[in-house]
Design brief:
single chain, 344 residues, alpha+beta, Uridine Diphospho-n-acetylenolpyruvylglucosamine Reductase, domain 2, Uridine Diphospho-n-acetylenolpyruvylglucosamine Reductase, domain 3, Enolase-like, domain 1, globular
Amino acid sequence: MMRLPRFHYLAPASLADAARALADAGPSAMVLAGGTDLFPNMKRRQQTPGTVIGLRGIAALRTRTGDPGRGIAIGALTRLSAIEHDRAIAAAWPALARAASLVATPPIRNMATLGGNLCLDTRCSYYDQSQEWRAAIGYCMKRDGDTCWVAPGSERCWAVSSSDTAPVLCALGAEVVLVSAAGERRIAASELFADDGIQHLTRRPDEILAEIHVPAPAEGERSAYVKLRRRGSFDFPVLGVAVRARFGAGGAPGAPVEAARIFVGGAGSRPQDARAAADRLIGRVLDEDTIREVAGLIARVAKPMQNTDFSLSWRKSVAGAYAARALRELVNGPSAEPAELEAS
């Protein structure tokens, strides 16, 4: 049985108290939301904070305000299961509800939070192992070593972003609020992520992700998310495609695309902006010819490495198929096929 290392636990009752505690504890401290990512990492000695600041007692971090007509502000401690089952979110932002529903398993979604999923640690086949396994290979650059075993000659870590909600919120144009003892700042969700497997967040060590703001969908707007993983539940994504498009004529059938955003997850250290693919959609009807062309552009963004599940060549070949599925869902709604593909 793997046990947690010793740590000092704090349970502030307000966000201001939590921010002050985090500032006082220094960079070795970490905040705890649902614990579904942090605690397993601590048991494997991947993260060993001296102080853990629990946020569960802060009611303000579980609130939701607004509506689809004005946009919605979601507290960072909102459970993924609550987002999954919220009919208003599913109607206005179907990609967000779908992404939340595809994280792990129902018991984990009842614990895991939206803010925690956004701040999820990057993953790699050489990193997400027991301490003994990692010691046997001399550790890796991400923790205790100096070599990235995915690309031994590289000067950077190539661990991948495995959040389901991150590419969706980037595609939806969401913003996040970061709070510290010095104040707060609000940035685009896409600016929260850095292209580095170790320092994968632009959130400072003294900041707490407090709230997520999702803008109201425009008239004629639709969104979709599809996910690739080995099993039909539990597993992290090795590819996720999030698309959002606004169609002309109020979204009437056959109307051309007026605006689009596309982000790819699970294929890099941060959600990848498929801007060329999104630009190619503008002014075009989303027919099969357009879908095939744009899916090819999305697949170019997905440049997987040998650091997650499945063979490298298979992951490359399936990227276009998954991108096409996401685009078809904009036209036809969710596919009768599962949003995840099981493969051997």
